Amino acid sequence: MPSYPLPLDREALEAIADEYPTPFHLYDERGIRENARKLNAAFAWNPGFREHFAVKATPNPHVLEILKQEGCGADCSSFAELILCERVGYSGEAMVFTSNETPAYEYAKAVELGATLNLDDLSHIEYVDRHVGLPETISFRFNPGPERTGNVIIGNPVEAKYGFTREQLHEGYRLARDKGVKRFGLHAMVASNELDGSFFVETARMLFEICRDVAREHDVRISFVNLGGGIGIPYRPEEQPVDYATVGEGVKAAYDELVVPAGLDPLDVHMENGRCMTGPYGWLITRALHRKSIYKEYVGVDACMANLMRPGMYGAYHHVSVLGKEDAPADQTYDVVGSLCENNDKFAIDRQLPAVEPGDLLAIHDTGAHGHSMGFQYNGKLRSAELLLREDGTVQQIRRAETLDDLFATLDFAGVAN
Ligand SMILES: Cc1ncc(COP(=O)(O)O)c(C=O)c1O
């Protein structure tokens, strides 16, 4: 079983599907709130702690509103995400703008909203200064290069396009100080979907050491460090979730060892997780349309990669359950496939499942982050609705499904014979 069970049974989901046709993504408000509280509690020792939810994971106003109520900020990566957060009522340092290859108008919008600019390159100090004017607060993204091994998903930091080198960081703080910047931050993200909590403690240690060096060498006091996102989730039933409390304790021990003796306390600790905040609390609900038997056995469903890219794009595992057959023996081996004209449109390959019949509802688990949001429209596929299971048990549609009118809205048919 996945770490966070689907809170509704087949009957309840059939009733929902009567109103909102499959496929749809369903999110669980209770799970999102309880998880956010756990993460915040793990860092309660740091009065300035803030998780800035990575908006790209689930860019929906209702999900953002829930996380805002739980005290989270927002990490934006684009103009659209900035506007979305503005419309949800975010402002000031509750917003971080961690972008790359950024045009001036996006920086200008972030500055207008008071968001913290988390610059991706040394040259962007001059760029922002020239085009927008440097704000009072600025943060830099560190890429540790050969000093650190990344993890499987994010890859080797030397090959990653992001961030400043260590030397550039030093130069950057000096330059920004000389240009009148008053408040400084430091950021790194070197892991993605990392289940080993000690990875984040190591990142904290690395950043605390840089804060100490920068204070010593340039008399620049860094006010906040951002450990990035990247806390993993147990997509596979045999995996264990990261214990936030242990990570919080480990970061506190590093803080007491490095930050306090250097006279840098208080230093605010921030994170910008997406996946662990919403991932386990979302499911893609889809219906089996066909069974096909050739060289392998196939179950064809009414969702496709347009609804969930991760299996096709990364070969990622997502647990699949057949609703109402949770206790039946998983004695069949299927590829569970979508309708895209791409052979990697497979939600599961060689998966042991109970016998599936056309009409069965399937739940694809852990789709609450980087699920709907990574969708696309290749093959004219439409992106699905998003539904929210409220704490009181009601279901709210928080995004309608796309229609052909949405798909064709940017086309110009004028002058084309029909
Ligand atoms: C800069 C940055 N911050 C945060 C995140 C969120 O990562 P995750 O959802 O793995 O926590 C990402 C993911 O792409 C990212 O690129």
Q: Could you please describe the fold and organization of this structure?
A:
The protein contains 12 helices and 17 strands. Helix content is 30%, strand content 22%. It folds into 2 domains: 29-278, TIM Barrel, CATH 3.20.20.10; 280-408, Beta Barrel (Lyase, Ornithine Decarboxylase, Chain A, domain 1), CATH 2.40.37. It has helices spanning 10-19, 29-42, 61-69, 79-88, 104-113, 123-131, 166-178, 198-218, 244-259, 275-278, 310-314, 404-408, and strands at residues 24-28, 50-54, 73-76, 95-98, 116-119, 137-142, 183-188, 222-226, 268-271, 282-293, 297-301, 320-322, 332-337, 346-353, 361-365, 385-389, 395-399. The strands form 2 sheets. Strands 1, 10, 11, 12, 13, 14, 15, 16 and 17 form a 9-stranded mixed sheet that branches. The protein has an 8-stranded parallel beta barrel with strand order 2-3-4-5-6-7-8-9, surrounded by 5 helices. It is globular. The longest helix has 21 residues, at 198-218. It is α/β, with parallel strands linked by helices and 418 residues long. Helix 2 runs parallel beside helix 9 (244-259) and helix 8 (198-218) packs parallel to helix 9. Bound molecules: pyridoxal-5'-phosphate. Pyridoxal-5'-phosphate binds at residues 54, 57, 75, 98, 189, 192-193, 228-231, 272-275, 369. Pyridoxal-5'-phosphate binds next to loops.
